[in-house]
Structures are given as C-alpha cells and as structure tokens.
From TrEMBL:
Superkingdom of this protein's organism: Archaea
Chain ranges of the Transcription regulator TrmB C-terminal domain: 124-352
Organism: Infirmifilum lucidum
InterPro entries: TrmB-like, Tscrpt_reg_TrmB_C, Tscrpt_reg_TrmB_N, WH-like_DNA-bd_sf, WH_DNA-bd_sf
Protein name in the entry: TrmB family transcriptional regulator
Residues in Transcription regulator TrmB N-terminal domain copies: 22-88
Pfam families xrefs: Regulator_TrmB, TrmB
C-alpha cells in the first residue's frame, strides 16, 4: 500500500499519530507539521512559521496556500498576514463528508464493472494485509448457503458475530471453533452470541473460514511466523484440506455449546456429516441419507437415498464414509476424495426415519 494508506497504520507517539491521520486526509508531511504548529502556537505569520519549522519561506507559502484552499486554515489580513488552524473536528468532519460521497460513487462504479470471468474462480489468492484478509473472510459468510466452518481467536469470532447470526437465521449450519479462550473467554462468547448452536474450544489454531466446501480463507495467527499473508482459496482440493483439518480439531476440542440443528441436517462437509450422524446413531436414532455425487468408477452423476447402516469416521486411518442400504444394495458413500468407496458425495441430507 502507498504511504499514508490504512494498511500502514502503526502505533507511535500522539504527535506521530496526528501526523499520520493528517496525511491520510491528504496533507503532505510539511502541511501536517504546519497545521499542528498553528494548533499549538496559535495565529502566526508566514515568517514565524518558517522560523518554527526551519523551512524556506517559499515552501511555507506553498503549504499555506494549499491548506487555505482546502479550508484547513484561516487567514487574517494585515501586515504581516496571520494564519490559524481550524478546529480539528471540523477538519475531520469535512473530510468524512467528502469521503462518504466519494465512497458511495466509487463503490457503485466498481461494483458495476466487477464481473470476474468463470476461469478466475479457481486457485489461491494472496492478501498481504492481515486486517483486509480477516474482513475478506468475514464476507464469505454472506454467501454461505448450506454450512460454514469458522475458527479463530475471540476477537475474530466477535468480528464475524453479525454475519454468523445472519447465516444461522438463513438456515446455514455454522460450526465455531475458538482458541486461547479459557473458561472466561468462552463464557463471553456465549453471552455475546446466544444464537450459536455449535461452539467448541481448542488449544491452538489459525484463522479460518470455509463455506459450502467451495471457498475458504486462512490466515496464520501465530506471531512467531514471519509470513502474515492471508489466503483466499477457491481450489476445491485445498478447501477440502482446510475442512479436514477443522474436523480433526473439532472432534478433540472441548464442547461449550452443542445444540441440535433441525432435521433434515444438510452438509457439504462430508466428515462433519459423518461426525454428526455417528453421534446420533450411538443414541439409537434411525437415520436416512440423501446424497448427490459421482460414481467412483465411471464418474457418472448419481443420487443416493437409503437407510444409514453406519457412519465410519476413523481419522487416524483415513476411513470416512457412510454405509447406506439402498434399493440397489449397500453402498459406501465417501467425500469427493473417495477412492475405495462406490460413491463420491458432495452434498448430504440426513433425516430421521419416519420424519
């Protein structure tokens, strides 16, 4: 990002912070120093300002002309002419009003021309500013239709609060895994986000969002790592790796909130579907499965429906599939990475027999 951009914000002395803000408002370094000098010293003439800032008078006159044209300073006629700074709140309010109008017009234009080609919807995109990466991952939840996996620290979870609530209201199954919380932090999340149905606490992790097994984002949350880039992942194979890692952490994490979603349960995440089905089978529930996917041998599109005999989820060994009693016999339904199974599934609905 260019000098003075939001991505370059850093914590410094109060004066450094003020100069940084003024530069973000469009002032040069000299103009920012001049404006602060007038705030601090009161009305001054150009020669006096030149002496305070140890700058040549032609430079000072150019800066005064620019500040005056923007309305950031006021002039008092006389010999010599005096200058004073306007109230900083007026300066900021004026800028924000201009920025709001500019932002609205610019967004309308950028959205009107933003039509990515289909071939661009694959691959791994790098986002080099961590805060932008977090907000980009948050936006993924707006498009979630079936299920979503969210992992992060308490600050990131709170950033996504409204979007998680909106997704759950739309019928999306959202699983939230946080870390570095402790009992107190977990309690804060539950109190602030009472709409959560699935929340667990892990020992460690990264910042991750995965939606509908089609889009993922990851940001390494470990300060010891030299790379702080975020990654937007549109490659299905890599998205599957993210979701598999999430499930591996989920099954061993501490349960905080575990409310049931209504039947039929809908999943694109194969292993999460297996995990939930396995728990219900252990409760002696009679379950049926509807799944869409592909025949492993032929690649032909297929729809599967039948009674779930077993939900095999052996993470260390890598076995993960449903055993389903269908009209054409017992079939094993795995995920899209299925090899030994008969069907590679990409969408799953689980419901109780008789419902």
């Amino acid at each position: 990002m260019s000098e003075g951009a939001i991505g370059d914000i850093s914590v410094g002395s109060p004066r450094e912070n003020a100069i940084q803000l003024l530069r973000m408002l469009g002032l040069t370094g000299l103009e920012a120093e001049l404006y602060l000098t007038l705030l601090e010293k009161g009305p001054l003439s150009a020669p006096e300002i030149s002496d305070y800032l140890v700058r040549h008078r032609p430079q000072i006159h150019v800066a005064l002309t620019r500040l005056s044209s923007k309305g950031y300073i006021e002039e008092l006629g006389g010999r010599p002419k005096k200058y004073r700074a306007v109230d900083p709140q007026i300066l900021v309010n004026t800028f924000m009003k201009e920025l709001d109008g500019l932002t609205r017009r610019a967004l309308e234009y950028m959205k009107s021309i933003s039509k990515p080609a289909l071939e661009e919807r694959f691959g791994v995109w790098i986002i080099r500013e961590p805060e932008v990466a977090k907000n980009r991952m948050a936006e993924m939840l707006d498009g979630a239709k079936v299920d979503a996996l969210v992992m992060g620290d308490i600050k990131f979870i709170h950033l996504l609060s409204d979007k998680i609530e909106s997704a759950i209201k739309r019928g999306v199954s959202v699983y939230v895994l946080s870390y570095a919380l402790g009992e107190r932090g977990a309690r804060f999340i539950v109190e602030d986000m009472p709409f959560l149905k699935k929340l667990r606490v892990a020992i460690s992790g990264d910042i991750v969002v995965v939606v509908d097994s089609s889009l993922g984002g990851v940001l390494k949350a470990r300060p010891t790592l030299p790379m702080r880039h975020g990654f937007l992942i549109e490659e299905r194979t890599l998205v599957d790796y993210l979701s598999h890692d999430f499930v591996n952490r989920w099954v061993s994490a501490k349960v905080v909130v575990d409310e049931k979603y209504d039947f039929p349960l809908k999943f694109t995440f194969h292993r999460m579907a297996l995990y939930e089905a396995r728990r219900m089978l252990l409760e002696d529930k009679k379950l049926r499965l509807k799944a869409t996917g592909y025949e492993v041998d032929t690649g032909a599109r297929v729809n599967i429906e039948g009674r779930i005999l077993d939900a095999v989820l052996d993470l260390p060994a890598g076995y993960a599939h449903f055993k389903v009693d269908t009209d054409s016999g017992v079939l094993r339904v795995g995920g899209l990475d299925a090899i030994v199974e008969e069907v590679a599934g990409e969408y799953f609905e689980i419901y109780e027999e008789g419902s």
